[in-house]
């Protein structure tokens, strides 16, 4: 379904719930596959050139499940025509993540960037939803 159609008509509640459940299951499935086969996937795509990145790749997959939750919230807010609220949430997240990046990257390098990505996804997908009344 095109996003424009979703934005103007929305989905009935049962379809939205079914789609949301499917998105969560899919993101969990992909995350588990990558955690199990991450070594082979990176070696197949890039060869041994990036073998040092395998652990970071697997760690970054922890945020994939949270990414699905954020996509569900985004679709919900768009369907309710609350795009300005979505904009405010994104500004808050960027204003939290940017200082964290300036602290974590010099101290931990690439691992710090991955950690901030996971922290940012947690804030965006779970914490904001708990704190902000319209997203609960």
Description:
- By secondary structure, this protein is mainly α.
- Helices cover 84% and strands 0% of the residues.
- The relative contact order is 0.12.
- The model is unreliable at 1-8 (pLDDT under 50).
- The two termini are 25 Å apart.
- It is flat, with a radius of gyration of 17 Å.
- It has six helices and no strands.
TL;DR of this structure?
The protein is an all-alpha fold. The chain contains six helices and no strands.
Quaternary structure: single chain
Strand fraction: under 5%
Report the C-alpha radius of gyration, rounded. 17 Å
Whole-number mean pLDDT: 78
Give the overall silhouette.
flat
Label the structural class.
mainly alpha
Which regions are unreliable across 5 or more consecutive residues at pLDDT < 50? 1-8
Largest beta sheet, briefly? none
Order of helices and strands: HHHHHH
Helices, by number, come to 6
**Care to count the β-strands?**
0
- N→C terminal distance: 25 Å
Please estimate the helix content: over 70%
Descriptive tags:
disordered N terminus; 136 residues; 84% helix; mainly alpha
